[in-house]
Amino acid sequence: MLRESAGKLSDNPEALFHFGMASYMMAQTEMAQGAFRKALSADTDFSGKAEARRRLTFLENAAKQEPHADQLEKEVREQPDDVIAWMRLGRSYEAQGAFVKAAGAYEEALKINPELLPAAVKLAQLNVGPLQNKNMAFAFAKRARDLAPDDAQVAGILGSIVYQLGNFSWSYSLLQESSFRLHGDAGVLHDYAWCAYVLGKISEAQTTMERAVEARPDPRIAADAKSFLALTALEQNPERLPQSESEIQRILVTDPAYVPALIAKANLQVQRGDAQSAIAIYGDVLRHYPDFALAQKRLASLYLEGPARIDEAYALALKARNTLPDDSELAQILGELSYKRKDFAYAIQSFQESARKKPLTGKDLYYLGMSQLRMGQDTESRKTLEKALSAGLQEPMLHDARAVIADLQRRSQL
Question: Whole-angstrom Cα distance, residue 141 to residue 123?
């Protein structure tokens, strides 16, 4: 409204002064300076002339040389309602590493103007960073989001904080929004990649982390991105796990909770036949990241072998399915689990879905054929079981499949 007033009454110094003050209170310094200069250049007098001159002088001096903290402390003592002085004082304290005092200055600015977005953003960043108060960080970031629901930077800050608080689905949504609108922000892309990863969206996470690297991040993000991409690539190249063991161990010594390294270690244990160690690792990862579809899938596949944990495996696989609806390996796991739970219709559906993406193994074909048999699909069952034999089906399933094929042949001749 004041912006509109200033536009319509561009030669009215009173309107320009009020517009300048409104801009000043919102920490929009360039807009405030422009309005004050134009108001002061008018030939006519106006009631806020002295105030406009004082505010403009402060802004111009600060633009030439950043004031020292003691100068700013004097300024806020004399003008306790000056939000720009409080904001600059907070910035000065930050530069000194006096983060508690900086937060206090930003809080004063926010008290003066509860809609001061830069103060809310600064408080969110301080609390999630050096002050390490995630709940306060969330409160200020949420406040900033309410003040600026379309601000991409605010969405990114809130998304990163929500990630640390464990709300990964909301974090994913916020960081995705921010990354689409803040092109080339390495920090946002890095956090977005991590969030996608712990939800099991591996390909998306890898692509996003590659974009973070292309954005020329700071050394900390660059180093993490290098480790992240190297370790997650082992998902598509499991044959490289043994030769990567020393690097996996090196990273885990530095950060025992580094999830891509933990997953790689568990996958290596599976390759070596140590299912129990792998189960322990996947389970520990899921305790911290309960929606991590990759760990859900891996754990479900290991539980397949134990009849006592079939229902638990099925629940894990269904959860993973929500995130990985097109995963052929997961469809195969669900097919076998469904067969063992005597849900033969869903077993057929799952195996056929998996087969559309990659050829079924002899064991998978066996379970599909036996499911078709249970559903009265004799012709389909016989064809599928014959394919299982050709695919190298092993005992004891081989004996059962041959017996069923022979029985179906006899019945077809009656």
Answer: 8
The pTM of the full predicted model, rounded to 2 decimals, is 0.80
> Which pLDDT value is given to residue 412?
80
The two tokens of residue 161 are 């904080």
Using CA of residue 188, residue 193, residue 194, residue 195, what is the dihedral sign? positive
In the DSSP assignment, the letter for residue 350 is H
- Using CA atoms, how far apart are residues 393 and 401, in angstroms rounded to an integer? 9
Residue intervals in the chain for CATH 1.25.40.10? 150-231, 326-414
pLDDT tens readout for residues 336-345: 999 999 999 9
Q: What is the DSSP letter of 81?
A: T
CA distance 398 to 304: 19
CATH H superfamily, domain 150-231? Tetratricopeptide repeat domain (1.25.40.10)
Q: What would be the CATH architecture of the domain defined by 326-414?
A: Alpha Horseshoe (1.25)
Alpha helix ranges (H) inside 199-274: 202-214, 219-232, 245-254, 259-271
Cα–Cα distance for residue pair 201/268, rounded to 1 Å: 21
Q: Tell me: the pLDDT tens digits for 106-152?
A: 999 999 999 999 999 999 999 999 999 999 999 999 999 999 999 99
Listed in sequence order, the residues at least 6 apart from 94 whose beta carbon sits closer than 8 Å to its beta carbon are: 102, 126
Six-digit token pair at 92?
């000065």
When pLDDT is averaged across residues 288-315 and rounded to a whole number, the result is 94
Query: Which helix (H) or strand (E) covers residue 188, if one does?
Result: helix 186-198
Cα within 13 Å of Cα(224), Cβ side: 16
Rounded Cα–Cα distance for residues 163 and 200 (Å): 14
